[in-house]
Amino acid sequence: MPLGQRPPDTEGSSVFAVATTVLDGRPVVVSASRDGSLRLWDLATRQQIGSPLTGHTGPVYGLATATLDGRPVAVSASNDKSARVWDLTTGRQIGGPFTAHDAIVRGITTTTLHGRPAAVIGGFDGTARVWDLATGEQLGEPFTGHAYMAKHVATAELDGRTVVVSNGSFGEIRVSDLATGEQLGEPFTTHKDTVSTLATTTLHGRPVAVTGGHYDGTVRVWDLATRQLIGEPWVGHERGVDGVAFTTLDGRPVAVTAGTDRTVRLWDFTTGQQLHVFTGHTDFVWSVDLAMLNGRPVAVTGSSDGTVRVWDLRFGLEAAESPVDYRRQVRAVTTTVVDGQPVVVTGGDDHSVRLWDLTSGKPFGQPLMGHDGPVRTLATAVVDDRAVAVTGGDDCTVRIWDLAAGKQLGAPLTGHTAAVRSVATTSATGQPLAVTAGTDKTVRVWNVATGEQIGAPGVSHRRWVRAVDTAMLDGTPVSVAGSFHGGLQVRELATNRQISTSSPRRHGPPVQQLATTVVGGQPVALTTSDVNWNWGEDVPVKLWEVTTGRHLGDLPAVNVQALTAASVCGHPVAVTASGRAVEVWDLTTHRQIGPRLYLPDAATAIAVDEAGHIVVCFRSGIAVFRGE
Description:
By secondary structure, this protein is an all-beta fold.
């Protein structure tokens, strides 16, 4: 399962650097931002520890952690030309700032020299300097040679000695002896233009440097002994690569990169194959570091969007190893029971309908193929004591599937002349019915057992219909559809005739999603609207009384892209997703239930069953949260 906690927020200030360490036995994150402060976060609880660490008078771009006299410390490098050491236990600065550089300092790494903890710091004055962390003294002479700036620094073990690897403004890499400052060999060029990140590690036992290009967006691996490129450049980022870190997953060496294309990417370090793309940041991602959380490897990233985010790397590896033919986006999800087994049913861009074991997450049977376009919507019903799925897609058809047999029942149901965007089912009439709505402006009702269309299609909507559900209104089964003008239209299912309509006092934004349930014995509908309708305004989830069309208030969930409602153990709840955040709501009190849950990517569809299992789809992934 992906991590389900809220990421730390840094009050909107761009986060330029992150580093991880362990404090009092718990994993923590140190973040540095535009305002010059450092903040400490408990990785497990996502809570800030103590007050911000202040002292810098400019943005902090460089950050590293180390251990000094048995205590965790952070070392920061700033545009104010200084570097500082911080005791993370007390939150206090240790000694005075390092101020020998004549320009901005950004590149920083920690190491040991002569058995003492030290920091190597690179500056825009073209030098790299080594500092004793305990005394604050500069060790030896500065490393020179870069024409303009020593932007990034790292250390490695090469031929039995510790070396400093640094890059300048024009893509050249220099290797120097840490102890003597002597440059080893000639510099070598890694990218045609600026190198935006540099790190060192080992690959198959040999020291390597890994670089990211500022303009070409590639990642390159270099043998430090031979200065030769290993393999082909890694291609995936659309813009500059600004952070890289390394670990091992299931014995496989992997790299994690952060880029100005707002993505975090997981790579097979040996082959350069991209394994997974984590999205969710809304601005440049500047920095990445790795940690262990509850026995699972995670990446921690900092971004100009003002957040520090945590990504479950195990999930990324599992997603990379999912069936190749199902990596396209999942559009629809629901749950049902097949042969006594609770399952998840999904529809996606690969034109398939798929079943998954709700308990294990493993595929259940074979993909159901038949649609000639993406499957946008689905619902389940029971026909002759057998579970069936009713699906609608961009091919304008409605299809019925026997889920136990894994086959389509009968011919496609035709009539819609444009994409089918919503489907709901009910058996309240004594026979299984499905109601479908689409961009052809119609609402249609079907007998699921026979495939027969009931009544004439409803064509009263002026524009497309994106959302429909079913309800019981004074003992009569009805469909409830969202209007283009923001209201509801209710139709009797037995005849598909419109029996009532409601609209806001003025024309509102179009209903984007709709879900129905029962609250206090009365049928209610929840609706979301097009978030692009009123630019700059938060769009809430609205509650309506189906019987009267009366507005019952709003849920404090805004800009929701996925919505569902259900009765869980007899209690009405709603589940909403805004981007990567998933929230559960008590519809009696309109209050949130439990903590906000977080996904590796933006949610595309949500379902909840009577047992309280919340199933969320996001791009090509599926997550299940089990209610307590």
